[in-house]
Each structure stands twice: as structure tokens, then as C-alpha cells.
């Protein structure tokens, strides 16, 4: 049950976090989620008060403004060589020459303001950054997150992987790219990084934040170096780590795993009050940037 701190800020229980995680990953519809939330919070009114803390608040998304004078950005960039209608959001440092490229792969809510902000952050670190909209061939990321969730439920892993692989090949041939391509993905997108590492040889380095692991029989195909971030409280995703690590060791894949104790799935998402952990997010981001700069130099 949610408790009220002295400053009247709700303290969100593990049961509530687990319930919301089930909802966001398609295990229940909104009606069942709200019913469960009301039960855990103590009332429908308490559930309604908690909901904004559980959902992403995109008013907090622009840590780097879209018109930041240090950047050049472009919306709706056509990713040629892939499925018809596949697009992304491109960002690069203004006036830069050839750069290592990084594909940014979103959570299972699509290319939203937070992921565009992540793309701009990556560009300011010195990369040609492309935030893919994996839903673009299906009409694009909707503003309604429930509609996006429904669209992801219909999207197979094979199709999503093919779209990400096409974006990697697009970046590998981009005139402003230096010949090396990396990828970073979050949650669902972290899982796609793991998958595309096993299927697309153009990928040189992959960073997966709390992403589902690929089938172990695919691991010997991985040629990219990997950096894997996991949340200590994320039992659903963490259950797959031992088998994945054993397969990576067996295939002699270069990789690093970092476990962030005491934090939740989606700890990097600074638009989500309930799960964001500033300390873990800063450490993981620093490690990610250092890894990508080293591997894509």
C-alpha cells in the first residue's frame, strides 16, 4: 500500500511498481491495472493521485532543447534501404565533420519526447545520433501511450529487429559517419539491441539498458562489443542474466555487465518519478558514453 511521507509525497510500494511494470509490458489492460492500483493504494482516489507519479511526464523531457544552438536536428528522416515509411529523428553537433554514429532505440512507447531528448544528449557527446521510430511504418508513434502499447503488442520481434538493422545499415553509409556504428536501447529497445547484435554485422558496439536477452542459440553470432546495464530490483529481466552471461562467455563475446543495486527497471528515465534513480542513471550514462567513444573511435 502507498504510504504518505511527512511532506505528503506518496511513497510507492514495491507491489505498485511491479503492478505498473506488468501493465506497461502488456500483461493487463488499463481497466485491470487501475482496479489493482486502487486495491493497493487503498481507494480509487488514492490510485488517481498516484497515477501521475507512475506515468512519464514529458514536461520534464527537454533537458536539451530541440533548438539548442549547439546542434543540428531533423525530424522524420527517411531511413533508406529499409521498410517503406521507416523514419527517425537525427541529431548531430553543429559544424561537425565525420562522426561515429549511434542508433537510439526507444522503450515500448515509441519515439516520444524523452527518447528525442536522449538522442540530443547523445549528439552532444560527439555522435551522429539517430532516434528510430520503430512504429513509423505502422503510422508512427501516437501521443496516446495506451495506443502505442497496443501497437507494440502487434509488432513481432523479428520485424522490430529488421527495422533496427536497416537503421544501422543506413547509418553505416551516412556521409557524415566515420565508419563505426553503435546502438543504445532502453527496456524494449534494450532487447532489440541484444537481438540486432546477433543479426546485424554492421553493428560495432551495443548498449542495452535492462533489456530482454536474446535466444541463447543466437549469441555465437554476436560480433559487437556489449555493455549491459541491469536494475537490481528488476526480477523479470534479471532472471535471464545467468543464461545470457554463460552464452556470452561460451561465445567469447566482449562484454561488460553492471548491476545497479536497489533500483528499478527504467531507472534511466528521468521523466518517470516512480522509477528514475539519478545516481544510477548518471553512472550508467557515463559508462555508456565512455564505452561508445572507445569502441567507435
Report on this model:
- By secondary structure, this protein is an alpha/beta fold.
- The protein folds into 2 domains: 3-54; 59-296, Alpha/Beta hydrolase fold, catalytic domain (Rossmann fold).
- The chain is 40% helix and 20% strand.
- It has helices at 14-24, 30-41, 44-54, 113-124, 145-154, 157-172, 188-199, 235-238, 241-251, 278-296, and strands spanning 3-4, 10-11, 71-78, 87-93, 99-105, 128-133, 177-186, 205-209, 225-231, 255-260.
- Helix 2 packs across helix 3 (44-54).
- The longest helix is centred in the last third of the chain and has 19 residues, at 278-296.
- Residues 1-9 have low confidence and may be disordered.
Concise description?
The protein is of the alpha/beta class and 297 residues long. It has helices spanning 14-24, 30-41, 44-54, 113-124, 145-154, 157-172, 188-199, 235-238, 241-251, 278-296, and strands at residues 3-4, 10-11, 71-78, 87-93, 99-105, 128-133, 177-186, 205-209, 225-231, 255-260.
Amino acid at each position: 500500500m502507498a504510504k504518505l511521507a511527512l511532506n505528503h509525497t506518496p511513497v510507492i510500494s514495491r507491489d505498485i511498481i511491479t503492478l505498473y511494470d506488468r501493465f506497461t509490458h502488456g500483461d493487463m489492460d488499463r481497466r485491470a491495472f487501475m482496479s489493482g492500483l486502487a486495491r493497493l493504494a487503498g481507494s480509487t482516489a488514492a490510485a488517481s493521485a498516484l497515477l501521475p507519479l507512475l506515468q512519464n511526464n514529458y514536461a520534464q523531457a527537454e533537458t536539451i532543447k530541440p533548438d539548442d544552438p549547439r546542434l543540428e536536428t531533423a525530424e522524420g528522416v527517411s531511413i533508406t534501404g529499409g521498410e517503406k515509411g521507416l523514419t527517425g529523428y537525427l541529431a548531430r553537433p553543429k559544424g561537425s565533420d565525420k562522426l561515429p554514429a549511434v542508433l537510439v532505440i526507444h522503450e515500448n512507447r515509441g519515439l516520444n519526447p524523452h527518447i528525442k531528448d536522449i538522442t540530443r544528449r547523445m549528439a552532444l557527446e560527439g555522435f551522429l545520433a539517430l532516434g528510430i521510430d520503430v512504429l513509423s511504418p505502422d503510422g508512427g508513434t501516437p501521443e496516446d501511450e495506451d495506443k502505442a502499447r497496443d501497437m507494440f503488442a502487434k509488432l513481432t520481434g523479428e520485424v522490430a529487429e529488421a527495422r533496427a538493422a536497416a537503421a544501422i545499415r543506413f547509418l553505416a553509409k551516412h556521409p557524415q559517419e566515420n565508419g563505426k556504428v553503435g546502438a543504445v536501447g532502453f527496456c524494449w529497445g534494450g532487447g532489440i539491441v541484444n537481438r540486432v547484435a546477433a543479426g546485424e554485422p554492421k553493428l560495432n558496439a551495443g548498449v542495452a539498458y535492462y533489456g530482454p536477452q536474446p535466444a541463447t542459440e543466437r549469441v555465437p553470432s554476436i560480433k559487437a562489443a556489449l555493455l549491459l546495464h541491469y536494475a537490481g530490483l528488476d526480477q523479470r529481466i534479471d532472471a535471464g542474466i545467468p543464461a545470457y552471461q554463460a552464452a556470452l562467455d561460451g561465445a567469447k563475446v566482449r562484454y561488460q555487465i553492471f548491476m545497479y543495486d536497489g533500483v528499478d527497471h527504467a531507472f534511466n528515465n528521468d521523466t518517470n518519478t516512480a522509477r528514475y534513480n539519478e545516481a544510477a542513471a548518471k553512472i550508467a550514462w557515463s559508462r555508456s558514453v565512455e564505452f561508445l567513444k572507445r569502441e567507435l573511435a
